[in-house]
Amino acid sequence: MRSGSPRWRRLLSTASPPPLLVGVAAVALAAFTWRIGRPAFWLDEVATVQDASKPLPELLAFLRQRDAGLGPYYLAMHVWLRFGEAEWWARLPSALAMVVAVVAATDVARRHAGQWAGLLAGFLLVLSPAATRYAHEARPYAFAIAFAVLAVWVLDHLDGRRRWWAVYSGTVALLGLSHVVGLVTLVAHPLFVWASGDRRFGRWLVAAGVGVLPPAVVGWFAFQARSTVAWIPKPDLERVRLAFAEIVGGWEYLTLLGALAVVAVVRTRDRWTAGLVVWFAVPPLLLALVGLVTPLFLARYLVVCTPALVLLAATAVRAPWQVAAGVVAAAVVAATVIAWPEHQRLRLPYGHGPDYRAAARAIAADCTGGVAGRHSLAAVRTMPYYVEREGCELPWLSGAVPAHVDRIWVVQWDWDRSEPTPGPGATVFRMVDDVTVPGLRLTLWRR
Predict the structure, then answer these.
(1) Cα separation values, 25 from 143, 178, 248, 280, 384, Å
(2) N or C: which terminus of the chain carries fewer CB neighbours within 10 A?
(3) C-alpha 275, offset from chain centre
(4) What pTM does this model have?
(5) Both 90 and 215 in a single domain?
(6) DSSP state letter for 393
(7) In whole angstroms, what is the distance from residue 25 CA to residue 117 CA?
(8) 3-state DSSP call for residue 5?
(9) b/e for 385-407, b at 16 or more Cβ within 10 A?
(10) 258/221 same-domain check
């Protein structure tokens, strides 16, 4: 059947939401689960698996001391990880959450700009390298993205009935419990309430306030343990500029979405698009201001803003179906060409960082008595985790070398040009092997 036939045209213009949403969900699920287990864990993912797997009393005590802000996620993963700790399994909840985000964004765009806009929003979010990265990460960011979009989806359905306000409060609570920084997106919500035709801002304020209460409690405990994020540098203009590119998946992808967003803003100039602009642009600036006072400004904390630019870009196809179809096709092709190299890289064994699996195999091949590893930043948690998974019980030294140790593995970043050393008091050791894997350099020293 020709795409220009009257029957096909009627189908696209009158199809009920489920066929479009089901189709987009299927594409998103396939994309976000493709090679989900291939990249090795990076440091924070290992922290998720190791900390969330602690016995419940030990986990609760741990959360009181550090990472309280991730408490709800860790508690949920505590249950999930009882059924396995493989990379694909630990990341699967994030992939499913990102599918929800894609479907919700598709429906929001469809309601405001038609079926073609919904289709484009879904594909642009699926193709975003940032969306794939956090769909493939055993951390809470995909959940924060999903609840950020769902909160706007709920605002889109306001009809004055209490149940929708209650649902909104619950969604805001889940957004903040996923990642408390995600609440900064609420700055755009008054504009969405206004755009919905329900101008009872007092009711919105009450509903949002109720939703903020649970994450505010978690946030208070997290603030008490803020020393755990003391390493985050203060933001400057360059960091803020780079953050806008990172949260959508790179400068090229930002340029594509930005160009479509400009078209949408120029053509529509309504409260809805104003809300999307605020959702994307204002939270990074607000978080940068907070980051000048307390360490908090990280680009990955702001991925909750990614759907805003996607929705703005999709709104650009609000046009007669013949024009919209061409714009969607061109935009999807351009997005695919731009994003494909990064999608391939993200799915390599070193897509999330160094290839710790390959490094662990090299170390485990010489896992006999008298061998140890030297503790370093490059070997924190992740290297011991994978070495242990290879069946090697390797002690990791942070001080002087015990007398019974005659071989030491030293792990460095591959960009670290400093000379490797087996550690203090180890002048009697000489280097006998040098192994390089993506992201890491391993040297073996023998007494």
Answers:
(1) 16, 22, 20, 24, 37
(2) N
(3) 22
(4) 0.92
(5) yes
(6) -
(7) 15
(8) coil
(9) bbbeebebebebbeeebeeebeb
(10) yes
